[in-house]
Amino acid sequence: MKQQVKVATRKRTRKIYVGSVPVGGGSPITVQSMTKTDTRDVKSTVKQVKSLEKAGCEIIRIAVPDLEAAKALGSIGKAVTIPVIADIHFDWRLALEAINQGVEGLRINPGNIGARWKVAEVVSAASDRHVPIRIGVNAGSLSKKLLAKYNHPTPEALVESAEEHINILEQLNFREIKVSLKASNVPTTVEAYRLFSRRFRYPLHIGISEAGPSFTGTIKSSVGLGILLAGGLGDTVRVSLSADPHEEVRVAYEILKSLCLKTKGANIISCPTCGRCQIDIRGLASKVESRLKLIDKPLTVAVMGCVVNGPGEAREADIGIAGGKGMGLLFRKGKIIKTVKEKDLLNELMEEIKKCNH
Question: Angle at which helices 67-79 and 42-55 pack, to 10 degrees?
Fold first, then answer.
């Protein structure tokens, strides 16, 4: 029997609830995204959230730039099933309205919303409605005091900023908190989370801020989040890309699947090809990946380019194909099922996958 190597034991954090979704305390790691529509356009926002739900998004964050957007949250929340988090900067009145509209979470930094009585009003409303607050520290928006102290956004500066915000909430007896410490620089982000986790037990929302467009952002996010998750850190994940939010969800799941932390959907194995390859593996693998995008059932699928070594190299796959010149093999768990003409490989594979899903 194959022995599976596991990542580091996850750090045990406090458990909070975003609506009915548990975060922290050993709960499954959740995947988040953020809408990229105008929040005031309820119809478009609801349409995007529902589409993201189907893609596997488990918590959605929505920007609240003004009172009109805040008032739209009620209609949006009633039309979707996953918890809605209101993303608010500076204005405590928007936080109060968002809570009044029924959101399940807030992203707001208490140190940035002015007088202590304003914070107290938000905390009181959040406590009454059981709405957790995420303290979201970003390297790009540290206080002038911290920048003067550390000269630039160091990991220590990020942690100190988070501590300042936490102290404000704890002094008001509020502990339904989760924390993020993000920078666009991967080493800075990783070290900030590590430092924070040594001192606090609040659940961690992890991500690389402003990671970039799809290609480079995926690499940055995969490296940064991979390091943190493999080290046992992270309770909820958001991949921040200058791309369609569906791509954020897809990348997040692939990162989690690569570390055996999530099992949703297809895991595709394909060989990189070499001089021995006599079949268009790159095109075939791309078509398989496209057809399996929406599959929910955990399934490992192999697309190999060598009929000699393919079935053996991919013996751990649930099902796969290995191509040769003009023909190929269809196999399951490393055992050959039948020989197939090259032109029929894709369809035969998809038919076999359908059987696996029934």
Answer: 50
